[in-house]
Amino acid sequence: MENRRTSLLAIFGIIVGIIAALMLLGAGYGYQWGWWGLGTAFTWLLPGSLILGLLATGLGVTFGFSRRKQPEQKGQGWAWTGTILGLAVIGTIGYWFLQAQQYPPIHDISTDIQNPPTFEAVVPLRADAPNDTTYGDQEKANLQREAYPDIETVYLDTDYPEAFDRALKAAQTMGWEEMVAADKATGRIEATDEVPWFGFKDDIVIRVDTSQASGQTAIDVRSVSRIGRGDIGVNAHRIREYLEVLEGM
Known about the structure:
The protein has helices at 8-32, 38-69, 76-101, 138-147, 160-172, 234-247, and strands spanning 108-110, 154-156, 178-183, 188-194, 201-208, 217-225. By secondary structure, it is of the alpha+beta class. The protein has two domains: 8-101; 108-247, 2-Layer Sandwich (TATA-Binding Protein). Strands 1, 2, 3, 4, 5 and 6 form a six-stranded antiparallel β-sheet that branches. The longest helix has 32 residues, at 38-69. InterPro entries: DUF1499 (IPR010865).
């Protein structure tokens, strides 16, 4: 019987592919669990996983060409697995890189950019956060207006007590990490949410207008990241999602 040997290219390919995938996942979860800092994750682990992903893919392709000349080589399944892992790593990093190019470098989004809702209850929770709760200058407001023209105040045709209860119920259905405060007297609802993978925390404040002008109640929402210059559209998406739930009630 012919002795068929497993190709070293296939073996190395799957090993490198597994390491690349583990580095990619570990970059985020390791930071979230406190194993290393954000600098290590972004400077070493993410670029390293990309390099290894490219290597794993290259080894798989090389094995494919090599097997044409030596069809007796074993390890096709391993080589394919390593290639798929490598492509998954490349695709994931490439996707988030392209996403980052599509959004403005802002991390604080509000339906009211002239008079944004203010935070109170979550302020102590942000004591160590690099980003404060100051909305920013007119330039950032213009960036938001240009990028997210649909993020605007919502008006409910109902009185204040009912509007507040509705706003609170909508917030409770969002699945945010923690409801920090709900003060009906001042019309303020505050919450905290966590982004998967890296575990970045964002804070949300909902302002229910108590003036009841024109028989309507205004609902404003603001979502702010604790870390990072930009947010890849996460805060705007969160506000849109909340307002859709609110209006659908």
